[in-house]
What we know:
- By secondary structure, chain A is an alpha+beta fold.
- Chain A has helices at 26-41, 49-55, 65-80, 90-95, 120-123, 142-157, 240-253, 258-265; strands at residues 3-10, 13-20, 60-62, 124-127, 130-133, 161-165, 168-172, 181-185, 188-192, 195-201, 206-209, 212-215, 218-219, 224-225, 230-237, 268-273.
- Chain A has a single domain, classed as T-fold.
- In chain A, strand 1 (3-10) and strand 2 (13-20) form a beta hairpin.
- Chain A is globular, with a radius of gyration of 18 Å.
- Classes of the chains: A alpha+beta, B alpha+beta.
Amino acid sequence: MALEEARFEALGSSCHLLGVGLGRGRLSWAAAWVVEMHDRFSRFEPDSELSCFNARAGDWVEVSAELDGMLHAALEAYRLSGGLVHAGMLGSMLAIGYSRPLRFGPTQTALAGADPPPPLPEMLQVEEGRARLLAGSGIDLGGIAKGWLADRLADDLGENCLVNLGGDLFARGVGPAGDGWPVGLGGITVLLSDQGAATSGTWRRAWALGADRLHHLIDPRTGRPAVSDLAEVSVVAARAVDAEVHAKAALLLGSDRAPAYLAAHTHGWWLAPQPP
Amino acid sequence: MRSLLLKAGATVLTLLAAGAAAVHVSGHVKNAEAPLHPGVLGAPPAVSTPARGELTLTPAVRTSRVETVTSTYAS
């Protein structure tokens, strides 16, 4: 059976869907679903469900099944990473000037407002069909949303498919040749089957502020852009969202502690140091 | 003499054009709010990874020489 694929822009990234033996129109349906998810869960869309949820911090708010799933994933990410992956970093994101898509450029920075947040379970409560944010706080689902959406879409798209949403991917089934989906990771080809992969790095979505270099990966221990001896970490794990969480946590841990952490949680990894 | 005058004229004209262009460009810096070019569809994502790195795989992941169909990357 032929390999079908679709490429498009959504979630602030390039998306790539592949499948073998999918029903007619499935890739078009899947691409439209991703675009709809972008509109509903982007913090840059003022009327998105996420923006409305952030705007009502302090109140219990009814949430859709998708937002409920992503909020639970955010809490699980916090738990799995020992607090290193923290979805409640919106205040820091705004403070460093990441208040709009970076293709428009960063806005005014106010680093004094970039403080470490309280623990996520103290900021975010999620119950059946509703959730509440601590007053004055906000969340940015970022990579957690991409990973969660990749997993969810792969579950629905077909038995032999690959969903890559901005580098967060899930490979379902045996791939086009029956021995796994050939995926590029760290400059080599790995064969993935019912596995996720993701990459976290500090060299993209980065910009200069005087002598300082700012980027989007915030360390919740400081509230500021992370300082790490690693420039990039790629991970293979059971699900895309797990790979996303562990790649980010490993980058924040640095090269000394990342290998032991990744050995306990993942199927494989690539660690790239900062350039000299 | 005529040739020298023509050369001098051309030089002056070139310098004036360059000066006018510089004034125009510095007075029209990039507008961040300007409409964007449409996203390019059908092209592969810009994938790049740092040149150096250390790869560790458990037995749950196999390597291959097959051409990749897609890649994980930082976005």
